[in-house]
């Protein structure tokens, strides 16, 4: 797993095309342009600007020369919140092999040690049992249900909300103000 780069746009577009049907129940309805190399290149550049400002990290999971997953640490907020959101998917051909679980555990540790965050949050559709297992294996806990939380697969859908606290101690020092 590593930070995505603009030259990864062809691999990312190919992965989205390859997984279009597989991902459709779990993602927003996408315009046709989304599945092109140019769209993905622009998105990677935009997200790398967020990385420069410390607001997010677009990560790719690779098996050799093939991109097999996408992980986004986004919406990083510093100050008293010290939190970020996590989103991800793994190629349908590679699903169920523990790749997402291993990658999410690595991201949790990176958020704790390297980024000094206090909390990560993630959400899943109510029926996305596989993703819920990934989060629970990585130490996330279920904290509630958000009605009509995201517009997924063409409709507003309820989501389970999860969080993992990265620092249990009560610290008087807040990093990254």
From TrEMBL:
Residues 1-167 form the N-acetyltransferase domain. InterPro entries: Acyl_CoA_acyltransferase, GNAT_dom, N-acetyltransferase. Signal peptide: none annotated. SUPFAM superfamilies: Acyl-CoA N-acyltransferases (Nat). It holds the Pfam family Acetyltransf_3. Keywords: Acyltransferase, Transferase. Belongs to the acetyltransferase family. RimJ subfamily. This is GNAT family N-acetyltransferase. It comes from Paeniglutamicibacter terrestris.
């Amino acid at each position: 797993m590593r930070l995505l780069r603009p030259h990864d746009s062809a691999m990312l577009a190919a992965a989205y095309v390859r997984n279009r049907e597989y991902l459709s129940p779990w993602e927003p309805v996408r315009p046709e342009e989304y599945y092109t190399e140019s769209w993905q290149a622009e998105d990677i550049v935009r997200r790398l600007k967020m990385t420069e400002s410390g607001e997010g990290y677009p990560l790719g999971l690779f098996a050799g020369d093939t991109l097999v997953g996408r992980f986004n640490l986004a919406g990083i907020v510093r100050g008293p919140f010290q939190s970020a959101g996590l989103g991800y998917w793994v190629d349908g051909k590679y699903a169920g092999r523990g790749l997402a679980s291993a990658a999410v555990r690595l991201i949790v540790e990176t958020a704790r040690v390297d980024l000094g965050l206090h909390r990560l949050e993630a959400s899943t559709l109510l029926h996305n049992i596989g993703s819920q297992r990934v989060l629970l294996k990585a130490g996330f806990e279920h904290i509630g249900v958000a009605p009509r939380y995201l517009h997924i697969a063409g409709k507003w859908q309820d989501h389970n909300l999860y969080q993992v606290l990265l620092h249990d101690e009560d610290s008087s020092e807040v990093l990254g103000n």
